Amino acid sequence: PEVVAAINSFDPGHTNITFSWNNLGLSRQSGRILEYEGMLEFDPLQPEESRLDVTLKVGSVFTGSKQLDRDLRSSDFFDAARHPLITFRSTLIPRTGVRTGEVAGDLTIMNETRPVVLQVRWNYTGEHPWGPINPAYKGKIVSGFSAATTIMRSDWGIKRGIPLVSDAIEVTIETELSRKE
User: I want to staple 130 with a disulfide (CB 3.0 to 4.6 A). Which of 11, 46, 104, 137 is the partner?
Assistant: First the structure.
């Protein structure tokens, strides 16, 4: 099947957007963004020509602690009531290796836009690996990627708790996408 220049949508069952931080020097804590939408226009033959556009819903922040979730959504942190969305739009996607690249783009948090670079590994593009043995997946074209970056939350004005709670936030993304038919 043709896989070139596909518009792909995120598979919610196989996408994990995680952020983590150093908490008081005691441990690394983490949270997830559970609700998001977006698309990737991806050409495996010319990955530099790709486009990524993602919107994250701040109200879906999940840490496993109801109190911490409320705190992160409050005006002390993300201010979800006034700024319900975080967006990322790619601006440049240079290749760094056969299956690696950088996705540079604009990250907007609380109406502040700053440049961010994701380190990305392209894991796979082609017919879904279940396709040969499960008719439900036959002919379904998928892609998989792993990405990571570190941002400084203070760049977006989120300063509560610094330096006891780290300014540096590690972001990791594991995702599978399906070609839109």
Answer: 137
